[in-house]
Amino acid sequence: MNISALQKVRYEYKPKLPSILAGSIDDITIETGAPTEAISDMEELRGIFKNTYGKPLVTFSKGKNDKIKRQLKVGVILSGGQAPGGHNVIAGLFDGLKKGNSDSTLYGFSGGPSGLVENKTVILTPQIIDEYRNTGGFDIIGSGRTKIESAEQFAASLETAKKLNLDAVVVIGGDDSNTNAALLAEYFLANGSATQVIGCPKTIDGDLKNEHIETSFGFDTACKTYSELIGNLCRDTNSAKKYWHFIKLMGRAASHIALECAFQTQPNVCLISEEVEAKGMSLDQIVDQICDSISKRALNGDNFGIVLIPEGLVEFIPEIKKLIGELNDVIAANEKEFAQITNYVDQLYFLCSRLPECSYNIMQTLPPDIGQQFLMDRDPHGNVQVSRIETEKLLVGMVEKKLSERKANNKYNGKFSHQTHFFGYEGRCAFPSNFDSDYCYSLGFSAFVLIASGFTGYLSSVKNLTSPASDWVAGGIPLTMMMNLEQRHGSKKPVIKKALVELDGKPFKTFAEKRTIWAEKTCFMFPGAIQYFGPSEVCDSSTITLRLEHEK
Length: 552
Ligand code: FBP
What we know:
The protein is α/β, with parallel strands linked by helices. It has 23 helices and 16 strands. The strands form three sheets. Strands 1, 2, 3, 4, 5, 6, 7, 8, 13 and 14 form a ten-stranded mixed sheet that branches. Strands 10-11-9-12 form a four-stranded parallel sheet, with helices on both faces. Helix 8 links the parallel strand 7 and strand 8. Helix 9 crosses helix 10 and helix 12 crosses helix 18. It starts with a helix and ends with a helix. 1,6-di-O-phosphono-beta-D-fructofuranose binds next to loops. The site of 1,6-di-O-phosphono-beta-D-fructofuranose has 14 residues, from loops.
């Protein structure tokens, strides 16, 4: 196999573990706290999760644990979008299992949750694991977005667990996938199965976090990768002084990635979707905000700059959010008929009598290529595929129009040339940073300890992440503790609450203090590429968001 020089040396990297997990396997025991409650809708959730609701928080400490050396059979699933470090979660789980008992087996379910439903597995051997240590990607077993929701899918998953005689299933996924993990844990117990289910918090979006989960894995590496690219564009535009770069950044609904990249690069404008929603800003007001920065900088002779746009922005602009919701309803109610219409003009004609007038009017004003993107298939969890809506192009078009109006009114006298970019997939499979390599390996190892100790319906957790890894605190969080009921497809469903950017949180407030000056002056920062070797402050630091959150 052809491997790069970096891949070769990264195989040798030994991820750092919390000291409790790095020591002897005979010296890891469990401490449990008081019973827990869901974040809201407690009574309803207690009814849905009769067997798994309200379990205590778990931490690991030194001591004897009779169960830790059990021979175990475990299956692991990679679920949803790729995030750097997934391979290390599997490596940590594998090494933990083998350290506990060398006869334990780890199955990988191929292609995501459908691998569990369809019983498609590979046995993970030391050779396979060694080929993937400290590498990006999910290609060790593949991933998928299948949602286990029908009675048949749950029954088939149970059948697979029985056939393989599984002690546990580990679901490495985001909020939707871990909601699925919670339902699976409940279903197994309710149907007399002893197969445990443990989740691991994955997603570059950074939106699976709370008091107990400080960050999801992959966020660190993805943000550092995008920031390197944005920093390069900052330097390019500061050299050539001729382009405004409009950069859309992945992250689905939440703007955590855009905010972190703003800290790392100090762009002229960074839009934050959550603020747009809170202030009820219209598309026109957003365009005004960008044009204000362009106009001010033009007065200084600076006809160049950087604009960061969170991927999910359109869903937070009240008038567009309403449009998307209404489109979802019309498309769902006329699914088959609508699927037959392939031409955009005919699609608009079909929507004309079915959408409320005001939403139809917005639809008509959108450039056809953007309008079409609003009509594309939803993902299996019902989400609009925001990564496919070219918001950066929509904004550039509107900015150009507004600037010519300003010029006609003598309110702008600059020169506007632009470039658009979308950074998303570029960061999802990068070699994990040291932080993600260590964090993921620890999450996998911690999942093993939870399984060996008999827990189900838990999310593997590693806390105190801004301290050196030896001081990290490992344990488990009951999945039901992070849940509430939300309206999905016309009815209330239990879901893990998505963490959006908090406008009264330290990261946003810090950004808000600095952005006025960034909008006018050139304050760019150039973080450069992720470093794997060198001084610890360069190689091991966590995100600025995490550090600010710890300061509060
Ligand atoms: P997860 O929520 O599954 O972690 O996915 C993250 C993500 O990268 C989002 O940021 C993005 O909107 C989406 O996946 C893109 O999905 P796809 O890979 O299906 O194009």
